[in-house]
Amino acid sequence: MFVMFRQVDLVSSDKGGGDTAAPVVSRDGRVPPETSPLERLLYRPVPLWLLLLVIVLGAGGLIAFGAVVDGWQKSGALGRAAIQTARLPDTIKRSFEGSAPYFRGQYPRLPAGFWRNPAQGLVDPGYALVSPYDPERGRSVVRLIRLSDGATLRDIVPDVDAANARSRFTSALTDVRRDKDAPRNRLMHPLLLSDGSIVVHDSSPLARYDPCGRLMWSLDGIFTHSTERGPDGTLWVPYRHPRPTEPGVRPTFWDDAVANVSPDGTLLSSVTVAAILERNGLGHLWRGRPYSDDPFHLNDIQPVMADGPHWRRGDVFLSLRNLSMVALYRPATGRILWWRVLPWRFQHDVTILDDHRISVFDNNVLMGYPREAVNGTNRLLVQDFAKGVTTSPYAEAFRRNAIATRAQGRGTPLPDGDAIVEETEQGRLLRVAPDGTVRWRYISADAQQRRFALAWARYLDSSTDGTAIQKAMTTPCV
C-alpha cells in the first residue's frame, strides 16, 4: 500500500506570475521527467508501512530521550548532551527575556535612589549595603550607601563570570554560565568583611571578591539566600545539592542543606535539612505531604552570637519557608532544641534581638491561593521565648506603607524601635517607625521609574562594621 498524492492539473495564467502550480502526478504515482530533482523527491510516493515505522521509531526515540534526561547524571556524556538539548527552549526563551529583574505588579511611581524625610529631622548614622540592578551597566552591583545623606560611597562590580568559569558541577536545577552570568546574577545578600571584601552568590558558587570586584576565591555548588557570619568568624549559608542525595526523588529536587564555610572558602560541614528533620523525629512534616520538588526552601541560617537562657553561642536559627517553620538547631549535637510552625506563613529573615527574643519577617501568604497571594500585608513578628508569646509591633507601619512582597523580604528591628524593611520584589528599602512614619527610603528603579527587585540589603553600624566600611571606601583600584 502507498500514500498517494491526488492528481493536480497544471494551471497557467495570462495575468502574470508564471507557472506556480505543483507538477502533475499521475494516478500511478509517476512524476513527469521534466520536473526538477527536488520536486521529484518531494512528490515521491511513500509506503504506508514506512510512514508508520517512522512514527513508531519517533515515539520510541522520544521515550528513550525522556528516560535519559530523567536520569542524565548517570548517563555520562550522553546524559549531559541530553540535558543540554532539553534546556534549549529555556535558553532561547531567556535570550528574549533580558536580564533586568523588573517587578511586574502595581506600585506608585517614585524616583530611583535615596530619599530622606525632611520633616523628621532624623540623621541615620548607619550605612546600607544593597545590590540593585544598574541599567547603565546592564547588571547588578553591590552598592555601599551612607544613610545620613544617601551618598554612594562605592560600587563593587564582582567578576562573577570568573567564579562561574571555575565551576564544574552539572545540575538539572541550574546552568550557572547560562542562568547566573554577570547580567543575570542578582548578587544575593552581600556580606562585607573586615578587609572591605564581599561574599556573594545567587543560587551559584559562593565567592569572595575584593573591593575592586576581583575574585579572591570561589566554592563550587549552589549556594542560596542568606549569608551570615557566626561568632567564630565562619560563614553559614544555605546550600542546595546540585544532584539530590535524597533517594527516590527527581533530579529537580531541592535538596537543601545547612553549610558552614571558612573565611578562606573551605567547606567545613554540610548536613541536609531532610537528615536534620529525620534525626529529630520530624520527617513527617514533609514526608506526610504530597510530593514537591521544593519541600523545605531553607532561606535563612541565623547564628547565635552569645549564650542566653534559651540558646547557646554557636546555635543557629533555621527558616524553612515551605514548612512555615522556624527552628533552633544546635550543630554541635545535631539536635533541634525548639521549633514552631505558624503563625508565620512562608516567612524569611530571622533576627536575634536580645537573649530571649527573635523577630521573623512573615510574608503572610495565603498558601492555598493561586500565585501565593499576600493576605493584605507582610508582618514583622516578634517571638518572646521568656513569655511564650508572639506579637506584631509593626502592624501599623506595614499597613500604612502597604508592604507586601509575595516572596523574599527582610526586616530588622533597631534598638530605638524603628525597623529597616526590604520589600524585595517591589525594589523598596525603608526605615519606618512603628506608627508607619517613613524616615528614609531607597528605591531601585530605572529612569522611567520602573522598579527592579532588590536582593537582600544589609544595614551596617559603624560601631561594629566601621573597619570594613572604611576599607571598602578607601581601597584603591588600579
TrEMBL record:
Keywords: Membrane, Transmembrane, Transmembrane helix
One Pfam family here: Arylsulfotran_2
Residue intervals passing through the bilayer: 48-69
Domain of life: Bacteria
Keyword presence, Transmembrane helix: yes
Protein name: Arylsulfotransferase ASST
Species this protein is from: Sphingomonas hengshuiensis
